[in-house]
């Protein structure tokens, strides 16, 4: 400790001279204050001058003695007392007890003026702990101060209550604090809530009746009080989430308002609105939405919003992002959000900032069970983290690996963990890691092996297992940990009363319990004995197993003074029909009578130390000869067997421990000798015990074993296991995050050639570590998964022009079905008011004329010319083409001659009718196709609507009949489509509810040889419905004032568009916004959502940031546009 | 650095722990934190002393000072990291260019400031201006009271009973309207 002080203070003496501590602004107070500081100052100064711990001790003792004299002198003034307290606090901080001063601290709190009282309270809260008896003396003072009219006194009392207060005295102050909830000052209300939180923690029953008041605090008009109440709610919801589901809506509303910047700017931190409040709310939502689809439904919107808003690269926004991600993965999953969250995790993991990397790994660890593919994407980063210089990162990585351990990668992962252990970190890490290794591989695997493998398990396996457990590693702590874990896990297993365990497993259990029961201190040996006793009574337990159990009972009995259960067992078994058990019972009885003998006979943890082994096993020669004569297999040395086993069973590799027992066990004969029964009883007993003559039983069993559980036997079991794991994983791989998997190109095996040696090594490591995680097992897994999912990704982007295979349309269907819920929600929302936040594309149907102009009409190209639409379109043609003239959107405008050419060569590439050609439109993209026909789509952005032109082309040489195209709910019918020809139909779509993206389901059916139906979908984006809106600056100003819904956000500008005009250009070109005016560093833009919902945008640049401010009569529109703005600004 | 350590650990201190344990925790924490490089993460997973894997040490290093918070899993790591920043900035405001000496000589003040931010182990206030306002208001009151030491008793009690000046918190709640729809009526 002293060197800590020295280090801190060594720099100070020089400063001390110049800096008079009493004169600082902090050193408020009268003239006495200066002397107090100087006394403390001289104390500190003299401590600084010391050279050894011993001297420091002497000095402090001196100081304490003088302090003791001062504080107990009756003449000491309160002011002097206060300064003594400060010095006492200092001494306590250095680790010297000053208990004589405690009572004076309480007195000071009671009698002093404000400043003295404060020091008194502070000293009390620092000196005393919650159960200190002196604390009772404080209660009166607290009660008095709570009733004071002086706010500062009330604050102090509330603070001390929330820090330290005796539980039994809560009733004395509770009503007073409850009253404070109605106090007019928010700071008092806030502190009162905090004090009640403290009471809730230490005595939940006592505050049960004021839950209503918590609710009131939650809707307090002061946001600080509301924030304080969240602590209580977080705690209560953690304990019982079902009781507070009704509050979900409120929490969502609060979060929405906070995120939307509705709190005053005071709450901003680095221009993020109330980040800590957001974090708290997100945690609460996570707890509420867990495993509850209905509640989760309520929060999707706000989570999406939070994710989007947290874009600026400040530390605190990452904190919010991290919470968001965690919440999204905790609540009932929604694929869109998961996708975004996965991207966020990527940001964390790949961040060069080490704190973020750490959190990224933590997030990965958290989501890995739901979504193992995410780990696959980041496997190279994970591998790099394994070699990270920071041990904390390394440990977190191992934690992650621990979660993805399966039968195939267990060896590599355990190896990595052992490597980490060898580096010898702090004790805590070692203990927890060893626990994990043991759990992971050893005990758990063995438990699984025993319970599944049952009695056909090769008897070597339990024996080896027990030996490893007994001999342990080199490290005492690890051994201890492992054994404790084993005992605990077995006790837990035995907890289930009627479960049938294989005999071998029971034997192992009873041995472990007998040998190491005393390591687990919190379990009464009597409990273990009772359990063993009940086992003894079970009929399914064979007498062999009973012998093991008896041995355990004997061992336990030797360490307990007298036990009723032991007596009962002795009594019961003394009359047993089984002679062997009877023998045990008698032995036990005699041993119990002579405890000393018993103790010396059964020393604790002597399973591998007290054996003097006749290494040559000469006494067994005859037995061996006999065995061989009866056809037993000749002896194989241990390592040989080990190797054989290794080659047979990958999962049961004992290699890491090979050294430890190979060195200490010289011959296999010990296996038999080390049996629990054989340990301390004569050979007459072992004649009946588990593994006597194990050669015979071995050979006998081996025949059976080989067939069932040999090389072929273990494997099927393995495969089942991994198969199970893989099933659920296949789903997310297919639907949710497939897109990203494809983005981890460094991992593709075929690129290996171009990579350096080191990278190759890493890849190899990756493939061994992440084996079994993907959709299909096997080493080639990653390559496969990659290609498959990449394909999916491409296909799901419907707008891309790709020739689609059959397979692709399957994928597409699945993509469409993913979005079905989106559309399903729509009918519910139709009744919602226009401003509703819930968004969706209103289903257009011909019957509801008020919704969408749903004139899906089948017209030949010729007839279109005469259509009503045509007039409108051509009328607007000029203005539109000028608007889109410099847009970046690729406009497909081949010259008419080129069109003719291409038409003659490849008649199946559809092209727009001439009159539409002039309008701004998208490229013609393929939608889907089959053997017989292909579908293409072109979006035409007319002035007042979006026209979808669907081309149906017949690829066959024969005419197709009865082609029905169903787009959303309207059908268009083509009686016949001639061979090698293209027909088209068009549909006018409008967006009635704002959403950033919508998908129209559609299908086409036709009659070729048989009725065929193809399903596909059309993706529409918000931008398809946004048109520029021309207006004057004056109109803009008027309209601006009349609009209520506004959204503000700062976005970062990339260096290349670091001026307002560049940014405005981007927005104008890419988002079709009309630029109204530019004044200085501010610009105004306007646009409208079809048919006529305006949205105004005000932009301002300052220090590399672009402040966007949207206003619109429709609540959801600004959000949607903001999202688009962020997107284009990022892209440019 | 001491005081921060001892203070924070004090607030996580479980029911009955001897002074020894507390000192041990401080020593261990210092040992852990001081040997960390600059370019490693600011989080340390719990040792046995601070209560196991649920607890974490989150620290920030300012020149010769370490500010260490020990938190459980209900806190956000990055959030706490910024809270330390807020704390230090607040100290800086309250002491006007804070230095180590201020923290050593005014342990009590530092504790008071911390108590305004973290109360009973929970984050109470994160708004720096608000904290500074509170502290200033209290100082003023205390000062005026101390200055009245020699004044007649009635004058002193008059000052004592004077309420805190209206602190302009400036929370323009404006648009925020937190409604709890299912709020049962209070009986």
Helix and strand arrangement:
The complex is a heterodimer of chains A (1132) and B (187).
Chain A: H1 2-10, H2 13-18, H3 31-49, H4 53-72, H5 78-93, H6 102-111, H7 114-127, H8 136-146, H9 151-163, H10 170-180, H11 186-202, H12 211-218, H13 223-239, H14 248-259, E1 268-269, E2 272-273, H15 275-289, H16 293-309, H17 315-330, H18 335-350, H19 354-367, H20 372-377, H21 379-386, H22 391-403, H23 410-422, H24 427-453, H25 460-471, H26 476-495, H27 503-516, H28 525-537, H29 543-559, H30 564-574, H31 579-593, H32 595-601, H33 621-629, H34 638-648, H35 655-664, H36 669-673, H37 683-686, H38 694-709, H39 711-735, H40 738-741, H41 757-769, H42 781-796, H43 806-824, H44 826-829, E3 857-858, H45 861-864, H46 868-883, H47 896-905, H48 914-917, E4 925-929, E5 933-941, E6 946-954, E7 960-967, E8 970-977, E9 982-989, E10 997-1007, E11 1011-1021, E12 1026-1028, H49 1033-1042, E13 1045-1052, H50 1060-1071, E14 1074-1079, E15 1082-1089, E16 1093-1102, E17 1105-1112, H51 1116-1131
Antiparallel strand pairs in A: 1-2, 3-9, 4-5, 5-6, 6-9, 7-8, 7-10, 10-11, 12-15, 13-17, 14-15, 15-16, 16-17
Chain B: H1 2-12, H2 19-34, E1 43-45, E2 56-62, E3 65-71, H3 77-95, H4 100-105, H5 107-117, E4 118-119, E5 122-123, H6 128-147, H7 153-160
Antiparallel strand pairs in B: 1-2, 2-3, 4-5
Helix pairs in contact in B: 1-2, 3-6, 5-6
Description:
The complex is a heterodimer of chains A (1132) and B (187). By secondary structure, chain A is α+β, with helices and mostly antiparallel strands. Chain A is 57% helix and 10% strand. In chain A, strand 5 (933-941) and strand 6 (946-954) form a beta hairpin. In chain A, helix 18 (335-350) packs antiparallel against helix 19 (354-367), helix 27 packs parallel to helix 29 (543-559) and helix 29 packs parallel to helix 31 (579-593). Chain B has helices at residues 2-12, 19-34, 77-95, 100-105, 107-117, 128-147, 153-160, and strands at residues 43-45, 56-62, 65-71, 118-119, 122-123. In chain B, strand 2 (56-62) and strand 3 (65-71) form a beta hairpin. The N and C termini of chain B lie far apart (50 Å). Residues 1-17 and 149-187 of chain B have low confidence and may be disordered. At the A-B interface, helix 1, helix 3, helix 5, helix 7 and helix 9 of A face helix 1, helix 2, strand 1, helix 3 and helix 4 of B. Chain A: Adaptor protein complex 4 (AP-4) is a heterotetramer composed of two large adaptins, a medium adaptin and a small adaptin. Chain A: Residues 1027-1130 form the AP-4 complex subunit epsilon-1 C-terminal domain. Chain A: This is AP-4 complex subunit epsilon.
């Amino acid at each position: 400790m002293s060197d800590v002080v020295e280090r801190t203070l060594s720099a100070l003496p020089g400063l001390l001279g110049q800096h008079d501590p009493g004169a600082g602004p902090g050193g408020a107070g009268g003239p006495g204050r200066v002397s107090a500081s100087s006394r403390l100052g001289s104390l500190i100064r003299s401590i600084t001058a010391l050279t050894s711990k011993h001297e420091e001790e002497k000095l402090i003792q001196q100081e304490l003695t003088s302090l003791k004299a001062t504080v107990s002198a009756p003449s000491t003034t309160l002011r002097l007392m206060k300064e003594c307290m400060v010095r006492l606090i200092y001494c306590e901080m250095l680790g010297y007890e000053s208990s004589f001063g405690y009572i004076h601290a309480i007195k000071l709190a009671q009698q002093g003026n404000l400043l003295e009282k404060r020091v008194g309270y502070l000293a009390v809260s620092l000196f005393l702990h919650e159960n200190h008896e002196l604390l009772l003396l404080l209660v009166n003072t607290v009660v008095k101060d709570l009733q004071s009219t002086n706010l500062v006194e009330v604050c102090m009392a509330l603070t001390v209550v929330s820090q330290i207060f005796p539980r039994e005295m809560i009733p004395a102050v509770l009503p007073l604090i409850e009253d404070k909830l109605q106090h007019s000052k928010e700071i008092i209300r806030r502190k009162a809530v905090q004090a009640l939180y403290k009471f809730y923690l230490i005595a939940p029953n006592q505050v049960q009746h004021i839950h209503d008041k918590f609710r009131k605090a939650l809707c307090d008009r002061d946001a600080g009080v509301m924030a304080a109440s969240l602590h209580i709610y977080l705690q209560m919801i953690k304990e019982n989430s079902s009781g507070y589901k009704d509050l979900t809506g409120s929490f969502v509303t609060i979060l929405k308002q906070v995120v939307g910047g509705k709190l005053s700017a005071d709450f901003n931190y680095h221009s993020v609105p109330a980040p800590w409040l957001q974090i708290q709310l997100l945690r609460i939502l996570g707890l509420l939405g867990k495993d509850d689809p209905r509640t989760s439904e309520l929060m999707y919107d706000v989570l999406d919003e939070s994710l989007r808003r947290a874009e600026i690269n400040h530390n605190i926004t990452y904190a919010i992002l991290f919470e968001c991600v965690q919440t999204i993965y905790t609540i009932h999953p929604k694929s869109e959000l998961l996708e975004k969250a996965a991207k966020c995790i990527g940001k964390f993991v790949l961040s060069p900032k080490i704190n973020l990397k750490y959190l990224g790994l933590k997030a990965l660890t958290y989501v890995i069970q739901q979504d193992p593919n995410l780990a696959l994407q980041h496997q190279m980063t994970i591998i790099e983290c394994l070699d990270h210089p920071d041990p904390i990162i390394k440990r977190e990585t191992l934690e992650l690996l621990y979660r993805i351990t399966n039968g195939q990668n267990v060896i590599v992962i355990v190896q990595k963990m052992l490597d980490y252990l060898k580096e010898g970190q702090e004790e805590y890490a070692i203990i927890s890691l060893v626990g994990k290794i043991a759990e992971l591989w050893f005990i758990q695997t063995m438990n699984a092996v025993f319970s599944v493998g049952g009695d056909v398990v090769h008897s070597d396996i339990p024996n080896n297992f027990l030996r490893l457990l007994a001999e342990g590693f080199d490290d005492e702590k690890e051994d201890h940990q492992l054994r404790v874990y084993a005992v605990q896990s077995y006790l837990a297993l035995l907890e289930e009363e009627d479960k049938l365990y294989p005999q071998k497993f029971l034997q192992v259990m009873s041995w472990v319990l007998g040998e190491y029961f005393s390591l687990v201190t919190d379990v009464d040996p009597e409990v273990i004995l009772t359990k063993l006793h009940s086992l003894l009574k079970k009929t399914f337990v064979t007498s062999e197993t009973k012998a093991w159990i008896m041995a355990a009972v004997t061992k336990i009995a030797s360490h307990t003074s007298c036990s009723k259960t032991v007596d009962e067992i002795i009594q019961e078994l003394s009359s047993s029909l089984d002679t062997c058990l009877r023998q045990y019972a008698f032995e036990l009885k005699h041993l119990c009578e002579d405890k000393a003998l018993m103790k010396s006979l059964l020393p604790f943890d002597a399973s591998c130390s007290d054996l003097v082994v006749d290494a040559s096993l000469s006494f067994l020669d005859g037995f061996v000869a006999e065995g061989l004569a009866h056809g037993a297999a000749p002896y194989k040395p241990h390592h040989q067997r080990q190797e054989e086993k290794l080659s047979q069973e990958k999962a049961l590799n004992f290699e890491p421990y090979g050294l430890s027992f190979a060195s200490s066990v010289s011959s296999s004969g010990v296996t038999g000798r080390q049996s629990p029964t054989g340990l301390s009883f004569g050979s007459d007993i072992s004649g009946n015990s588990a593994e006597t003559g194990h050669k015979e039983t071995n050979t006998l069993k081996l025949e059976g074993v080989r067939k069932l559980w040999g090389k072929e036997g273990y494997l099927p079991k393995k495969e089942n296991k991994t198969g199970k794991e893989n099933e659920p994983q296949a789903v997310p791989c297919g639907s949710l995050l497939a897109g990203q998997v494809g983005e981890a190109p460094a991992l593709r095996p075929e690129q290996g050639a171009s990579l350096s040696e080191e990278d190759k090594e890493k890849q190899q490591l990756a493939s061994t570590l992440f084996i079994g995680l993907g959709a299909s097992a096997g080493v080639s897994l990653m390559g496969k998964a990659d290609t498959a999912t990449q394909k999916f990704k491409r296909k799901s982007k419907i707008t891309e022009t790709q020739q689609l295979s059959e397979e692709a349309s399957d994928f597409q269907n699945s993509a469409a079905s993913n979005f079905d819920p989106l559309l399903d929600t729509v009918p519910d929302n139709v009744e919602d008011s226009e401003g509703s936040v819930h968004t969706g594309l209103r289903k257009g149907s011909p019957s509801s004329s008020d919704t969408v102009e749903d004139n899906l009409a089948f017209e030949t190209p010729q007839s279109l010319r005469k259509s009503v639409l045509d007039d409108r379109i051509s009328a607007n043609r000029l203005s539109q083409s000028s608007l889109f003239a410099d847009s970046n959107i690729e406009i497909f405008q081949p010259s008419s001659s080129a069109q003719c050419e291409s038409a003659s060569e490849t008649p199946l590439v559809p092209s727009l009718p001439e009159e539409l050609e002039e309008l701004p439109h998208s490229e013609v993209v393929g939608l889907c196709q089959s053997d017989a026909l292909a579908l293409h789509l072109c979006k035409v952005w007319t002035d007042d609507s979006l026209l979808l032109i669907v081309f149906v082309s017949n690829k066959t040489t024969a005419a197709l009949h009865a082609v029905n195209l169903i787009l959303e709910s309207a059908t268009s019918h083509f009686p016949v489509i001639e061979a090698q020809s293209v027909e088209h139909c068009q549909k006018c779509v409008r967006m009635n509810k704002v959403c950033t993206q919508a998908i129209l389901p559609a299908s086409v059916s036709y009659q070729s040889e048989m009725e065929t139906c193809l399903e596909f979908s059309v993706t529409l984006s918000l931008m398809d419905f946004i048109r520029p809106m021309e207006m004057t600056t004056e109109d803009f100003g008027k309209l601006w004032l009349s609009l209520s819904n506004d959204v503000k956000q700062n976005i970062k500008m990339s260096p290349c568009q670091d001026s307002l005009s560049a940014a405005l250009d981007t927005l104008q070109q890419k988002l079709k916004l009309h630029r109204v005016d530019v004044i200085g560093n501010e610009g105004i833009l306007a646009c409208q959502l079809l048919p006529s919902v305006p949205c105004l945008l005000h932009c301002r640049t300052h220090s590399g940031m672009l402040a966007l401010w949207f206003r619109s009569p429709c609540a959801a529109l600004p959000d949607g546009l903001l999202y688009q703005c962020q997107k284009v600004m990022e892209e440019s | 650095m001491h005081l921060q350590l001892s203070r924070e650990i004090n607030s996580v201190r479980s029911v009955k722990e001897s002074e020894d344990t507390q000192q041990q925790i401080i020593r261990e924490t210092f040992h852990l934190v001081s040997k960390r490089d600059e370019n490693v993460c600011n989080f340390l997973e719990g040792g046995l002393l601070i209560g196991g894997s649920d607890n974490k040490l989150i620290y920030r290093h300012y020149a010769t000072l370490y500010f260490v918070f020990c938190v459980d899993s209900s806190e956000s790591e990055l959030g706490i990291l910024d809270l330390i920043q807020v704390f230090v900035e607040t100290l800086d405001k309250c002491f006007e260019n804070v230095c180590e000496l201020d923290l050593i000589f005014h342990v009590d003040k530092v504790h008071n400031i911390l108590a305004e931010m973290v109360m009973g182990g929970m984050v109470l206030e994160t708004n720096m201006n608000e904290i500074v306002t509170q502290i200033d208001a209290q100082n003023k009151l205390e000062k005026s009271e101390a200055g009245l030491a020699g004044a007649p008793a009635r004058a002193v009690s008059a000052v004592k009973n004077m309420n805190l000046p209206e602190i302009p918190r400036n929370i323009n709640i404006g648009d925020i309207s937190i409604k709890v729809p299912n709020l049962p009526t209070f009986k």
